[in-house]
Write a structure and sequence with these properties.
CATH topology of the largest domain: Glutamine Phosphoribosylpyrophosphate, subunit 1, domain 1
Number of strands: 24
CATH superfamily of the largest domain: Aminohydrolase, N-terminal nucleophile (Ntn) domain
Largest sheet: 7 strands, antiparallel
CATH class of the largest domain: Alpha Beta
Number of helices: 18
Distance between the termini: 17 Å
Structural class: alpha+beta
Radius of gyration: 23 Å
Number of domains: 2
Length: 510
């Protein structure tokens, strides 16, 4: 899971990208990068400026870096590695100088990485320098663009859309991409399942009603509107932070091109078959974001209402409801209100410690839980505590949290998960890619309860989770979301040899 942002038209674009990346820093804390483009003369002579490396956005960039990154167009990225060893060279964005010069960043995971790498090296004679899958997407795009650019029957934006079509035909997996092609424009596209989110926004001088907000997009701007700037980002919170009006989501299977004059053209490259990642709403996205017309915060409130039904049926009578901060807060609050039980902030988070889910190795997770959370003993001692967390993956973090609460004097600990048991690897960009990652795969609920040290354990039902995220007036939740990590029902074909390769690679690096 990563975060991407692309901006067109801002005079001080590097500073805006920096601010936007901070807004989505929660999506990746391992590495970051910014690439900008400045047009230096009337004859279309331009230059890319790049800085990337390991570390958070604030630790990596200083004011001198932002001054050096010139231009009014740029792309930014924050990384949480799911492929490769997480080397500095794997940090995004990536760049190639032919054709024209192309920069790109993406959020997702390429499943057929190895077969595409061999094809690019052996058939297209392109050099692959890292283990980052975005380098694969970049080289497929560049190779196909070079092939189609000079066809006499193809002109305007058609070569770009034809190249994206070839990318979608060749690349298997999830990808929400933002690219800049020198002398052509800023390009965004999303895989046909729309597994990873991608928002589209703008700043306008005219009223918002003068531009479209949904449905099919043909050409911007609308007659009489003045569009100053455009922005693509993984979450709507980045648009909010930078003062952009949201136009809509980039649709699954769609490409949107903003040419150098600010004209915006879109095309449905492949028919959409939405299977949005449901874990975005459970854990990854910020609660103040809206993804694919669904509020993350409202979804988490509804998750609490669904969990309250299960608590009532169980007969449990907790004295207090305590969330595991931060992602479980809205769910716990809704659950407490529905049950009529006091809600308390019984675990205080140190905000300067990274998200434990995206930490490598169990030992580091245990260590960071102790640094990250401290119990408020007065709210716990002698009480039957209902702990609410977003999920249970390996069980390591849950066990550590339970131990903290037990030592603080809890009389009983009831543990409840906002989502159903996680059992199947994710191959689309969340670092749960091996069977060994899941405590629920081989153990029963009673065995998990004993292992993490709680008195009762309750999981959300699949149906309850789907009800919480489903916008039933617009679509069927069962057809709109990827629930593969719960059900094993993957939206794309995944060859067995690729599964074995991915598992072998992740075990080697763990």
């Amino acid at each position: 899971m990563c975060g991407v942002i692309g901006i067109f038209g801002e005079r001080d674009v590097a500073s805006k990208l920096w601010l936007g990346l901070i807004a989505i820093q929660h999506r990746g804390q391992d590495a970051a990068g910014i690439i900008t483009y400045a047009q230096h003369s009337a004859n279309k002579d331009g230059r890319f400026y790049l800085k990337k490396g390991k570390g958070t956005v604030q630790s990596l960039f200083n004011p001198q870096d932002l001054t050096r990154l010139k231009g009014s167009i740029g792309i930014g990225h924050v990384r949480y590695p799911t492929i490769g060893a997480g080397d500095p060279e794997d940090a995004q964005p990536f760049y190639t100088n032919t054709p024209f010069g192309i920069a790109i960043a993406h959020n997702g995971n390429v499943i057929n990485y190895e077969s595409l790498r061999k094809w690019l090296v052996n058939k297209r004679h392109r050099h692959i320098n890292t283990k980052s899958d975005v380098e694969i997407i970049l080289n497929v795009l560049a190779s196909e663009l070079e092939t189609n650019m000079w066809a006499p029957s193809i002109g305007g934006e058609k070569p770009v859309f034809e190249a994206v079509k070839r990318v979608m035909e060749r690349v298997t997996g999830s990808y929400s991409c933002i690219s800049f092609i020198a002398n052509i424009g800023l390009l965004a596209f999303r895989d046909p399942h729309g597994i990873k989110p991608l928002k589209f926004g703008c700043k306008v001088e005219a009223e918002a009603s003068t531009y479209p907000t949904g449905g099919s997009l043909s050409t911007y701007p609308a007659e009489g509107s003045k569009f100053n700037n455009f922005c693509f980002a993984s979450e709507s919170v980045a648009l909010d932070t930078l003062g952009y009006d949201e136009i809509r989501d980039v649709n699954p299977g769609e490409a949107i091109l903003i040419d150098l004059k600010g004209k915006v053209i879109s095309k449905v490259i492949k028919p959409p078959s939405p299977r949005h990642c449901i874990f975005e709403y459970i854990y990854f996205a910020r609660p103040d974001s809206v993804l694919d017309n669904v509020s993350v915060y409202e979804t988490r409130l509804r998750l609490g209402e669904e969990l309250a039904k299960k608590i009532k049926k169980s007969g449990l009578k907790p004295d207090v409801v305590i969330p595991v901060p931060d992602t479980a807060r809205a769910t716990a609050l809704s659950l407490a209100n529905t049950l009529g039980v006091p809600y308390r902030e019984g675990l205080i988070k140190n905000r300067y410690v990274a998200r434990t889910f995206i930490m490598p190795r169990d030992e580091r997770r245990l260590e960071y839980v102790r640094y990250k959370l401290n119990p408020v003993k007065q709210e716990i001692q002698g009480k039957k505590v209902l702990l609410v967390d977003d999920s249970i993956v390996r069980g390591t973090t849950s066990k550590a949290i339970t131990s903290l609460v037990r030592k603080a004097g809890a009389k009983k600990i009831y543990f409840i998960s906002s989502c159903p048991p996680l059992k199947y690897p994710c191959f689309y960009g969340i670092d749960m890619q091996t069977k060994q990652d899941f405590i629920a795969r081989e153990k029963s609920i009673s065995e998990i309860k004993a292992q993490i040290g709680v008195d009762e354990l309750i999981y959300q039902s699949l149906e309850g989770m789907l009800r919480a995220v489903g916008d039933t007036e617009v679509r069927s939740a069962k057809n709109s979301y990827c629930t593969a990590c719960f059900t094993g029902n993957y939206p794309t074909q995944i060859p067995v040899k690729e599964i074995k390769r991915i598992e072998k690679e992740r075990i080697r690096l763990s």
